[in-house]
Amino acid sequence: MSRLVATQFPQWAGLPVTPVAKGGWDNWTFHLGPRLSARMPSAAEYAQAVEKEHRWLPVLAPRLPLPVSTPVGKGEPGAGYPFPWSVYAWLDGETASADRIADPVRFAVELAEFLSALRQVDPSGGPRPGIHNWFRGGTLRTYAGVVRDALPRLAGHVDVDLVGGIWRDALDAPWDGTDMWFHGDVAQGNILLRGGQLAAVIDFGTCGVGDPACDLAIAWTLLTVEGRQAFREKLAVDEAEWSRGRGWALWKALATYPHTPDDGDEADNSARRVLDGIIAEYVSLRP
């Protein structure tokens, strides 16, 4: 990393380079001095997002009510590293988690306001769903195989027929085809807090234009029951879009659900918690 910076950005050559704790899987993230960060895609498929972020984040950022990742330099392959990479202005904050959020309903409303502003940006020319963002913004049917393979593992732990019904409802929920901007990975690791309040949203590598329902998954993966309701009301989400959003949350939970559900590590417990919340909410809304 230091060699890349020194050869391509000599103005920052003297800045210390240190890995960011929990710097991500898709990208390796480093502190570059106190006010910058460098992100290096970990594989070719993640490198596709570099050009997209440099093209579109300067367009999106001025139209959003919260700070977002702002690229200040685009690096090229070199020094044995094969992909393009980016330098960003550093955003202060700590990664969001349920226990760090001071006011869950206020947080939910402010997150909905951010997504609403993103949806209002003109989608003309924006990147369509594809490999660059793992087909976020497209049809949930892309992930039907993942869900089909995961469901048998749930036998004896949850009502498999009920979970299958939730998934089918999501697949059948219509989208009117109106393209909107979406972030694509509104998740704990991409939301920053300061003093327990929503402070910034980072990592737009999966952003694009299409069906924005994928951004609703956060309603089940992080928000409280009350926060979820406030989030939905603020975004004015209809039943069909809410069902599709639930489907995205379900896919995420099943994709990370343990192969042996009683393993009991942190990731497994999180997936089970999300799955239980999806089921409880779905059942509560049934006539």
- Number of DSSP helical runs: 9
For the terminal residues, how far apart are their CA atoms?
57 Å
- How many domains is the backbone divided into? 2
Strand content: 5-15%
Describe the structure.
This protein is an alpha+beta fold and 287 residues long. It folds into 2 domains: 2-91, Phosphorylase Kinase, domain 1, CATH 3.30.200; 95-285, Aminoglycoside 3'-phosphotransferase, Chain: A, domain 2. 39% of the residues lie in helices and 15% in strands. The protein has 9 helices and 10 strands. The chain has helices at 2-8, 44-60, 104-119, 144-150, 160-172, 218-221, 225-235, 239-256, 266-285, and strands at 17-19, 27-32, 36-41, 71-75, 85-89, 94-95, 180-182, 191-194, 197-201, 208-210. Strands 1-2-3-5-4 form a 5-stranded antiparallel sheet, sandwiched between helices. Strands 6-8-9 form a 3-stranded antiparallel sheet, with helices on one face. The radius of gyration is 19 Å and the shape is globular. It starts with a helix and ends with a helix. The mean pLDDT is 94.
Set out the fold topology.
Elements lengths: L1 H7 L8 E3 L7 E6 L3 E6 L2 H17 L10 E5 L9 E5 L4 E2 L8 H16 L24 H7 L9 H13 L7 E3 L8 E4 L2 E5 L6 E3 L7 H4 L3 H11 L3 H18 L9 H20 L2
Q: What is this structure, in a nutshell?
A:
The protein has 287 residues and is α+β, with helices and mostly antiparallel strands.
